[in-house]
Design a protein that fits this description.
Blueprint: E1 4-7, E2 12-15, E3 23-28, H1 43-57, E4 61-66, H2 84-92, H3 96-113, H4 129-141, E5 145-148, E6 151-154, E7 191-196, E8 212-214, H5 216-228, E9 231-238, H6 242-255, E10 260-267, E11 270-272, E12 275-276, H7 287-293, H8 296-304, E13 312-313, H9 316-336, H10 350-361, H11 366-385, H12 389-406, H13 416-438, H14 442-454, E14 457-462, E15 465-470
Parallel strand pairs: 3-4, 3-9, 9-10, 11-13
Antiparallel strand pairs: 1-2, 5-6, 6-7, 7-8, 11-12, 14-15
Length: 471
Amino acid sequence: MAMTFYDTLTRSPKPLEPIVPGKVGIYVCGPTVYSEPHLGHARGPVVFDVLRRWLEHEGLEVRYVTNVTDVGHLTDDADDGEDKLAKRAQLERLEPMEVAEKYFWAYFDAMARLGVRRPSVVPRATGHITEQIALTQELVQRGLAYEAGGSVYFDVSAWSDYGELSGRDPDELLEGTRVEVRTDKRDPRDFALWKRAEENHIMRWPSPWGEGFPGWHIECSVMSTKYLGDEFDIHGGGLDLIFPHHECELAQAKAAGKGFARIWMHWNMLTLGGEKMSKSKGHVVDLATLFERHDPMVIRFHLLRSHYRSLSDFADEALEASAAGLRRLRTGYESWRDLGEPPGGPDPLAGERTRFAQALNDDLNTPEAIAVLFDVARETNRAVAAGDTGRGAWARSLFDDLLHGVLGVAPTADGGAAAEAFDALVHLVLSERDEARRRRDFARSDTLRDRLADLGITVEDTPAGSRWRKG
């Protein structure tokens, strides 16, 4: 079954045709590690975690690379201003690398709570200075970059394809846009490959042009091709990165003779209560605070209920609706898990599995895939209530495979050993209750049921035995 994804460069759906058969290389722009991870950091990693899981589910080997920016990203995303990480280091009175380490681990700890698996490779900008200097030298030698006052700039006028990703006309990039004018630039549209370090700049490295630091854009051109090859399958990032970051990445790489990414996938923004999130205006919520109020799996589920290329809002009402939906799926799963192994014969849910696959193969349509799971839960609950326990066993297997495995939504709010211990204790109590019922000691049976109810556990007695669920 062919997989097709919307490609920003061609502005059309494009089939995934791996460069190396059976293997897929993915590069996703990662965080600038200078502050606590916030809600805006969550969508891309969750979406691409599902993409990675789905590709692996379909038998493909995935190398997934996410960079960490720990130098070179200036506060205004252009060629002037302070380095974000260096500025934070001054505020916290720490060494820049202390800041980078602190927020590096905070970011990946938050991603782990959202069920996002670690990338195959996590390269850091500061660990690839040599390669960034080498690419800058290559562009200078090709006549596509020039040195001015200790800084090196890409010559936009010498690269006719500049603007192909964003659809912007380079001739219309005037002063006053995000591309700021510097006196040492030949053209206001040119962007920095290497920056001269001013006297008080903390992070600096020797180079053929004097001490300095790399521009923001060049790190991704270098690290993506270093770990995935000069041409690779998929490049991902937020919609806000198309210009200037990804436009500059693409220009640098292709100007140096690299094929670069075949498919460009961009996720849309998140809104908070209907308004665009803004860190500078304080209209943002950090993930640690969000985790105090919501199960991280509800947040992940909510992110997947809207298509990655559409806006996703984090109003309280929307989150509550997602929480209620996930509870319905979990309740169904909990009621089927003691029904034994699926019986022999054809899978009665094969059609639903096909629909799920069709949804994800069509530009990673997670809302449609989730709709399939709701259909499975509804029809299975009806079938089991009518005595068809075999369908319940098949549904449990499907949920383990698709909801928990592919979508990465854990079956319970509490993961790991704690959940296993809780389940074991509930089953122990239910075993004692079943024994009391066999002895016709209904007073003891009712007491145990009531004690479980006090803990939020509902017990249902069915012809197939006792079942339980939370809530």
